[in-house]
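INFO batch 0412 | record 1 of 1 | parsing
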Amino acid sequence: MSRIGKKPVPIPAGVNVTIEGDRVTAKGPKGELTRRFDPTITIRNDDGALVVERPSDGRLDRALHGLVRALLNNMIVGVSEGFEKQLAIVGTGYRGELEGPSLKLTLGFSHDILVMPPEGISFEVEDRGRLIIIRGYDKELVGQLAADIRKLRPPEPYKGKGIRYVDEHVRQKAGKAGKAAA
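INFO prediction complete | emitting tokens
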């Protein structure tokens, strides 16, 4: 039995969950998320908690059991608390600033890059333009947007300049052999 899949997903106060066949809708203070799941997996509301059950012990059913439970948990946590990702900008002259709801990035190119937030996403810039905080209620969207922004100028291995996740470690290379010996 899946260890993740058999744990019930608690529904906090202020969150309303509707189950219609294979479609689950979670509505809370942060927003509303709807998702369709595999129809073979059974989802039911059991006294303020969502319980996920699988039809058999087949390989696919076992995999879907834990996946569906994790996705449901992300939906519930997202509409009740929300998610955030933090990106650090490292490099001389590199910075980010808010321009209305959008994010303007200066990354050493001949032009500034303007990133428009999708619906449900907000940006925050701290530490004089060196820290970008991406907030939203959809975990997938927050993570994908953070990855897309990081991809604009990934950290390079010699000086470490670029955009990285706050908890990311960038390995530094030595550089030219002649420089190291001198």
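INFO post-check: The first helix runs from residue 59 to 80.
INFO record closed
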